[in-house]
Input
Amino acid sequence: MKPEWLNKKIDLKIYSEMKGQLRQLGVETVCEQAMCPNAGECFGQGVATFLILGRHCTRACSFCNVDKSVPLPPDKDEPGRVAEAVLKFGLKHVVVTSVTRDDLPDGGAGIFADTVLSIHKKSPDTTIEVLVPDFKLSLSALETVIRSAPDIFAHNVETVPSLYNVVRQGSDYGRSLEVLKIAKEMLPKMKTKSGIMLGLGESEGEVLQVMRDLRSVACDFLSIGQYLAPSLRHYPVKEHIPPERFRYFKEKGIMLGFLHIESGPYVRSSYMAGMYL
Output
């Protein structure tokens, strides 16, 4: 049974209206795929997180609701459709993310870059965040995305290193840190961001060490939220973290030097995304 601080009311009217319009434009949002509880709130603030490169992921993270199966070839027209949706809805801030596409030579970096460039062209005042997979640490893939000049480059570590073998199969903690390190080195003026979920069985000390690790690679922004299992077949919630613990971690993070942190039970990596800049 969920504690009272997780009884958030979701604005289904806004969510339903925008979902229908997005379907007409032929674009996907991670808000729907990940069953995000903040979807209506974000849509109402002129912020959306677009999911590109299909609906099927090549990784097998046990916490995620995105489908794991054989993906389709990339849709070269998708960047234009996303840019059209941004323009149509007059979005102030956009997050562009994707499933992991280990099946593609560039991991989908080219489609990421084309999407950012298309949004820049159609809606030059819209700020853009890319939330990317690790691209298997391909320097050429990372450079392709960074050359498109997003305002924020994000890559989530998701959890503490000790839980990777059960929570993030196919991923590597050190590789994720290196992605953020390389991105900052390639374009120092670009802000970098990461995210972590609590309630998976991590200790306080492990969370603080992750925060120190992120600062060691000059990560600017951080999101900290409560893990909520999408279904009974997903990795189980080990603990419901009370709001005061989220405030504690935020205070510690600011002391470590993060420029902005969103930390709370319902925070997701893209929640209040426009507030970071």
Notes: The domain at 10-275 is CATH 3.20.20.70 (TIM Barrel). The mean pLDDT is 87.
